Give the backbone structure.
Amino acid sequence: MSIRRLPENLVNQIAAGEVVERPASVVKEAVENSLDAGARSIRVTLEQGGKRLIRIEDDGKGIERDELALALASHATSKIVDLDDLEAVATLGFRGEALASIASVARLDLSSRTESVPHAWSVEARHGVISEPAPAAGAVGTRLDVRDLFYNVPARRKFLRADRTEFNHIDDLLRRLALGNGHVGFELQHDGRVVRALPPANDEHGMNRRLAAVCGDDFLAHAMPIEAAAGGMTLSGWVAEPRYNRAQADRQFFFVNGRMIRDRVVAHAVRQAFRDVLYHGRHPGFVLFFALPPDLVDVNVHPQKHEVRFRNQREAHNFIYSSLHRALADTGVGAGAPRPG
Ligand code: ADP
Ligand code: MG
């Protein structure tokens, strides 16, 4: 057995295995890039549940002509330069791997325009080869087209589900992203139809509308705003009054520094806080934004960045628990009080 270096495209395909599971993973990476680029308006266009086409268009700051190919290279990022940056990441992306991974398992076109130039430039990636930039039409911002995901990886393609199922994953994801980024407008099109249009929420009324659009009118009707701060940490958002409770944990959104995450420490703190006000087996509803200095949370622990690690778990736990506990106590619903199911 002799050891050899793998060709770059194969390396990227292997990396893609960790990041790109299905069309929704492509949408997540692309929309996070748009958000990192300061976009105020993001449109997602799909064909066949994203299996045939995923198009993301944004009005962010764009990519320079001479950096388009670099954007598609692996381990190339504009977001961190050294270990200090990695230890205090303030952007959603930082690995510089997403576009390279996607380009290795799909046909990718990237077109972008910055403010300083009169038109867009575009490149194509096919089988790991990136074309020279060509002039293209387009406003300031970026457009990414991803076609025929996994066309060259039949083993992965086989695991894609029905169009409807893949679409639902994307719709769920987009609703979560929309909740976490109220100031950004989102539009989702599927097979030629606009299926979701969420105008930017610039004030309380707008944010309430978005809350209702994502969580339902019923959630909004029972939502209590929460605002707490201590030791450099803040917790804001809404918890639903305890009499709004659900058989499923499907109205629970927790963001850490703008990132939607799953975390055991957080889940435990929330469960504890609601323990005395909810019947066993019923689930609370909440949309919570937890913010703390970026150097107090490690985001580099999961390839798809679904998890984080708090540098001081106990402090985070206690703050989340006590903030929620206080907010719930204010509702006047104590342990043992009668609650309609
Ligand atoms: P990362 O987000 O981890 O840096 P990506 O592979 O997702 O890695 O993107 C590589 C680079 O391409 C980014 O660092 C950014 O500079 C640029 N880029 C990607 N998408 C966009 C976009 N929508 N707008 C502006 N720049 C982008
Ligand atoms: Mg990225």
